[in-house]
Design goal:
The complex is a heterodimer of chains A (about 230) and B (about 425). Chain A has about 230 residues and is mainly alpha-helical. Chain A is about 75% helix and about 5% strand. Chain A has one domain. Helix content of chain B is about 40%, strand content about 20%. Chain B has about 425 residues and is of the alpha/beta class. Chain B folds into two domains: about 200 residues, Rossmann fold (3-Layer(aba) Sandwich), CATH 3.40.50.2300; about 160 residues, Response regulator (Rossmann fold, 3-Layer(aba) Sandwich). In chain B, the strands form four sheets. In chain B, strands 8, 9, 10, 11, 12, 13, 16 and 17 form an eight-stranded mixed beta sheet that branches. Chain B has a five-stranded parallel beta sheet with strand order 4-1-5-6-7, with helices on both faces. The longest helix of chain B is centred in the N-terminal third of the chain and has 25 residues. The chains are: A mainly alpha (about 230), B alpha/beta (about 425). At the A-B interface, α1, β2 and α9 of A face α9, α10 and α11 of B.
Chain lengths: ~230, ~425
């Protein structure tokens, strides 16, 4: 029973970490090696709003996701678009951006283990005889909702269908008037927001450290490749 | 005409003499060249920056008091820090060695203080130090007993290497085990569950503790649970601990994710006392606030006294206050008090030796006997390891504290304890 419960929780956590990476790669075939950096910087941005500026937690989450989405879009629009189609160059460019962000955070003094975010709901509940904290249940709930939302988005909205079209056959999508570069920007923005959401959901379980950026990138790639995208 | 020329010469001579007098009277005093202390440290990590800050503080104090007397001449210390990154996952040992070599060859370090911090890197650096005949004092990290064992075994080659901080064997046998035994006797506890990180020092230490506690009559639940660096969920281990009715959870991890472990422990209200042999997240003063109190009751070993407030010696709280004033935070990690003492010990050795010549310094360091921040500082003459004790009058003392009411309260050794160990309320019978 404990393996089932915590297996589900940990699987959802891994899925959340990988969703953004998988989306960007699936749509634009760009392996975004800055994914882990976007995850970590989302945590620090939220921390800044909540702890340093005293902004309402929900508003902070909303603002963070917008900011990270814009950052992702800008990364693609100004850097990755220039090396699109050159796989190695895409990896090098995105990894360099990720490295710059993470090491920049370290250089800026964001070191140590005392940066934390509050959990959404305090306390725990016993499921059978297995104690589970409420925040982990929230992670599962929101994770499931995000997956469902993405399915609905990609099946029942114009933009979502355009993204799917691009993922299936870019040339055919171009012939149908879908702007592939614009869709790639949208995918990158969405992927970055998903990285931000994952950070906001998972980082309250521990603390925000720069090293997590490298770990999350590895996990996202492993999950993505393991599930064949 | 002759008279005019004579007066002209006299005036010129007077002016030249006056110029010389003014120049020599007003020129700044000659500054003796600094004694360069090279510090290879992993500065982005706690066990690196704690050492950097402490060395900087000590050097500032020493220089403000006039510097080091080297055979009658006062010379300041000059610190050169380079980031080895050796605590970061995936960084090869060779990076740390390059840093040590750079400090010696480019920065012209006279001495090496601080790191490298990882045991593997420090062991590899010993050959470099021997090659360049550079006296080194390790002050942080490097818990492996192999370090001083190597010095003792090949003294002539590795005599340049000293360690002023604690090591794993004493830490386990002289501090952690007696503390656990004391907890067992005081509260009637005898079931221990061990959770360790998948790194060499944790595997070694965790295994040793399991063996010794079993011999002491404790029930050691299963084998030590091993977690890879970066693990973000400890629920399986904690649930097992709960099912098996563990009363003490022994933790040996230097990764930041230990905060997740403690939060999970707290949320589950596990009736077991968390005991951190090494538990990096809990060592920082900001830990309680960061976890919103979920780290309360956690015990943490910070290896050397002075890394948490105590009255181990008359110097301890002076150091704590000075560190707080300089860096706006209490000492943290386990390399702080030792890194602070190292420049003072080196100063003392240089002044007794009357030179910077390595062999003279080695002899002087071997004869060191001073009361420091964490007890009496003496080195074993064969292994160059600082001599430990549970009595600060006799040797270098360790420190185990417990988070109580937002504060780090030193609870062991008894000679320097500031409070008693407490059980979480949900454990009390």
């Amino acid at each position: 029973m404990d393996i089932l419960i915590y297996g589900t929780i940990n699987s959802m956590a891994l899925a959340l970490m990988a969703l953004g990476f998988a989306l960007v790669y699936g749509i634009s075939r760009v392996a975004n090696f800055a994914h882990g950096a976007l995850y970590v910087i989302s945590g620090f941005v939220t921390w800044g709003f909540v702890r340093a500026l005293g902004v309402n937690y929900l508003l902070s989450i909303f603002l963070t996701m917008i900011i990270i989405g814009v950052v992702g879009a800008l990364i693609y629009q100004f850097i990755l678009i220039r090396v699109r189609g050159m796989a190695i160059s895409e990896i090098i460019a995105s990894y360099a951006i990720g490295l710059a962000i993470l090491e920049g955070l370290r250089w800026g003094g964001f070191k140590g283990m005392t940066y934390t975010l509050p959990v959404f709901i305090e306390g725990s509940v016993d499921i059978g005889e297995i104690p589970v904290d409420f925040h982990r249940l929230v992670v599962v709930g929101i994770g499931g909702a995000v997956v469902a939302f993405l399915w609905l988005f990609t099946h029942h909205t114009r933009i979502g269908l355009a993204l799917r079209g691009m993922a299936q056959d870019e040339r055919a999508a171009l012939m149908l008037g879908i702007d592939s570069d614009l869709m790639a920007v949208v995918a990158m923005a969405l992927g970055s927001m998903l990285a931000g959401l994952a950070a906001i959901l998972l980082l309250p379980l521990g603390n925000i450290v720069v090293e997590a950026g490298y770990n999350v990138l590895i996990l996202a790639i492993a999950v993505h490749r393991g599930g064949a995208g | 005409m002759k008279k005019k020329s004579m007066w002209g010469v006299i005036i010129v001579v007077i002016v030249v003499i006056a110029a010389f007098v003014i120049y020599y009277a007003t020129r700044p005093p000659k500054i003796e060249p600094g004694i360069v202390i090279g510090c290879p440290l992993s500065t982005a990590f706690l066990y690196g920056w704690d050492a950097e800050r402490a060395i900087t503080l000590a050097v500032e104090e020493i220089n403000a008091a006039g510097g080091v007397n080297v055979a009658g001449k006062k010379r300041p210390f000059k610190v050169e820090v380079i980031d080895t990154r050796d605590l970061e996952p995936g960084v090869p040992v060779s990076e740390a060695l390059l840093v040590v070599e750079k400090l010696i060859l480019e920065k012209k370090a006279d001495f090496i203080l601080g790191g490298p911090v990882r045991s593997e890197a420090a062991l590899a650096a010993m050959d470099l130090l021997s090659k360049y005949k550079k006296v080194s004092i390790l002050t942080t990290g490097v818990l492996t007993p192999k370090y001083h064992a190597r010095v003792a075994k090949e003294y002539d080659k590795f005599k340049y290497c000293f360690r002023i901080t604690g090591e794993a064997v004493w830490m386990v046998t002289g501090e952690i085990i007696p503390c656990l035994v004391d907890i067992g006797q005081r509260f009637g506890l005898d079931r221990i569950f061990i959770m360790i990180q998948d790194v060499a020092h944790a595997r070694g230490g965790g295994g040793l503790i399991a063996k010794i506690m079993a011999k002491k009559g404790w029930h050691v639940i299963g084998k030590p649970e091993i977690y890879p660096t970066g693990t973000t969920d400890f629920s399986m281990g904690l649930i097992k601990a709960k099912k098996e009715k563990a009363q003490v959870i022994l933790i040996w991890m230097d990764m930041p994710e230990t905060s997740i472990l403690l939060k999970q422990w707290y949320d589950m209200k596990l009736p077991a006392l968390p005991f951190g042999s090494i538990i990096a997240a809990a060592e920082q003063p900001g830990f309680w606030k960061a976890t919103e109190g979920k780290g309360e009751y956690c015990l943490a070993n910070v290896v050397n006294a002075g890394n948490a407030p105590s009255n181990a010696t008359p110097w301890t709280m002076k150091f704590v206050e000075a560190y707080k004033k300089r860096w706006n935070i209490e000492p943290e990690g386990y390399g702080t008090s030792t890194s602070y003492m190292a420049p003072y010990v080196l100063k003392d050795a240089i002044e007794r030796a009357g030179s910077l010549e390595p062999d003279a310094i080695i002899k002087a360091l071997e004869a060191t006997d001073m009361m420091g921040v964490y007890g009496r500082i003496r080195f074993d003459p064969k292994s160059h390891q600082v001599i430990p004790s549970v009595d600060p009058e006799e040797g270098a003392v360790g420190s185990i504290f417990q988070w109580q009411a937002k504060k780090r309260v030193v609870v062991f050794p008894k000679k320097i304890a500031m409070g008693e160990i407490q059980l979480p309320p949900w454990m009390k019978k």
